[in-house]
Design a protein that fits this description.
Elements (H helix, E strand, L loop, with lengths): L1 H11 L2 H18 L2 H21 L10
């Protein structure tokens, strides 16, 4: 696993890797700016952030003590 991660890191730091990363970043920004995708992103953000609020700091009412 480590050799694969090292190879990926080396590629990401190469000129071609940086170019591909920049192109992908621009494409993601374009897609994220669409109104329907903004709604999906906001809905996902709300669902993910609300998960932590439901547990109440580790105390769960549905688990016997």
């Amino acid at each position: 696993m480590a050799p694969l991660v090292r190879r990926l890191a080396r590629f990401a730091n190469s000129p071609k890797g940086r170019e591909l990363t920049q192109k992908a970043t621009e494409k993601v920004k374009q897609v994220a700016d669409r109104p329907e995708n903004r709604r999906r992103i906001e809905d996902l953000r709300r669902r993910v952030t609300s998960r932590g609020e439901r547990t109440g700091g580790g105390e769960r009412g549905d688990r016997p003590t």
